[in-house]
Design goal:
Blueprint (H helix, E strand, L loop, with lengths): L1 E5 L4 H12 L3 E6 L18 E5 L5 H7 L5 E4 L6 H6 L1 H21 L4 E7 L27 H21 L3 E6 L2 E2 L11 H10 L5 E3 L5 E3 L1 E2 H13 L6 E5 L4 E3 H11 L9 E3 L1 H5 L14 H7 L7 H16 L2
Parallel strand pairs: 1-2, 1-4, 2-3, 4-5, 5-6, 6-11, 7-10, 8-13
Antiparallel strand pairs: 9-12
Length: 327
């Protein structure tokens, strides 16, 4: 079986590509290498079952060519990162919406068997009625708050997935990832909170906690996300499906920062510092106090169960960054 992974040189995409190659699939990766990196694929670049195609999901011809003779598409290509949402909202909207449209239309034209779309917990917006199920309301704030552009764009992508099935018969599965972390995640100010915390702690800098730190999230190790993604692809659904993939164990961001300090061996040497949201994100940002998934559906239908606890996952990630930052 031949599969295409868009955004396959990125954080989650590269882990997925590796696993697919290990499982014996023929894997084609389409990535423009804007945020992805060839180094993320170093273990499989020379594998005869792997092909890296430099191309952009915004270029329909590139997508159409990349989807030829493909059985399944894993669509991970996107612009992500909260700081991008508030600094580059137009790029976030265009790439996430038009890029997804191109992937779905190419799948239709090339008779691809199914499309696995990587969505996000951001589609729930301001809904704090946790745990959030797949049918929970998607609630957003003012259109003047650029932070919401990513969640709304991804929500529109979900509608595109369902519309392409209903109008053209393209089989789609939507996976809502919850706060993924692990090796290879972008650790600059445009990256995920765990990666940013680890980078600062390993450089003997106090982690910056935005707001008062009481906001909570449920963090999911990347291997568990790859597991759930593959489980979803194995199923044969007649109708579009949506699944939450994540951990149900929440932690406050302040306590997360303290835990990373402890696991990195810097306890007593570093203390988190509180930074007002506007000082880092500017005036067009709003945060959510809680976000926790209900993964009952994924457990029952897919047999999904996250295996890597936060302490273990953070320890693995810290050790990877020790080596990465010292290269």
């Amino acid at each position: 079986m031949k599969v295409l992974v868009t955004g396959g040189a990125g954080f989650i995409g590269s882990h997925l590509c590796e696993r697919l190659v290990d499982l014996g699939f023929q894997v084609r990766c389409l990535d423009n290498l804007w945020s992805g990196n060839r180094k993320n694929l170093s273990k499989i670049l020379k594998n005869p079952n792997f092909e890296l195609v430099k191309g952009d999901i915004m270029d329909f011809k590139s997508v159409l060519n990349a989807t030829k003779d493909v059985d399944v598409i894993y669509h991970l290509g996107a612009v992500v990162g909260v700081k991008h949402y508030v600094e580059h909202p137009l790029k976030v909207i265009e790439v996430n919406v038009y890029g997804t449209h191109n992937v779905l239309d190419a799948a239709r034209r090339n008779d691809v068997e199914k499309v696995i779309f990587s969505s996000t917990s951001e589609v729930y917006g301001k809904n704090v009625a946790v745990p959030l199920s797949e049918d929970s309301d998607r609630i957003f704030g003012s259109s003047k708050i650029d932070r919401w552009c990513y969640g709304i764009a991804k929500g529109l992508d979900e509608h595109l997935c369902i519309a392409y099935h209903r109008e053209y018969g393209v089989r789609t599965i939507i996976l809502r990832y919850f706060n993924v972390y692990g090796p290879r995640q972008e650790c600059s100010e445009y990256g995920g909170v765990i990666a940013m915390f680890i980078r600062r702690v390993l450089k003997d800098q106090p982690p910056q906690v935005f707001g008062d730190g009481t906001q909570t999230r449920a963090f999911t190790y990347v291997d568990d996300i790859v597991d759930g993604t593959l489980l979803a692809a194995e199923k044969d659904f007649k109708e579009p499906q949506i699944f939450n993939l994540g951990s149900e164990n929440e932690i406050s961001i302040l306590n997360l920062a303290k835990l990373i300090i402890k696991l990195a061996g810097k306890e007593g040497k570093l203390t988190p510092i509180l930074v007002p949201y506007k000082d880092f994100y500017g005036p067009f940002y709003e945060d959510i106090p809680r976000r926790v998934p209900d993964i009952t559906k994924a457990q029952k239908v897919l047999g999904y169960s996250p295996k890597i606890g936060l302490n273990e996952g953070l320890t693995r990630t810290i050790e990877w960054y020790r080596k990465y930052l010292n290269r």
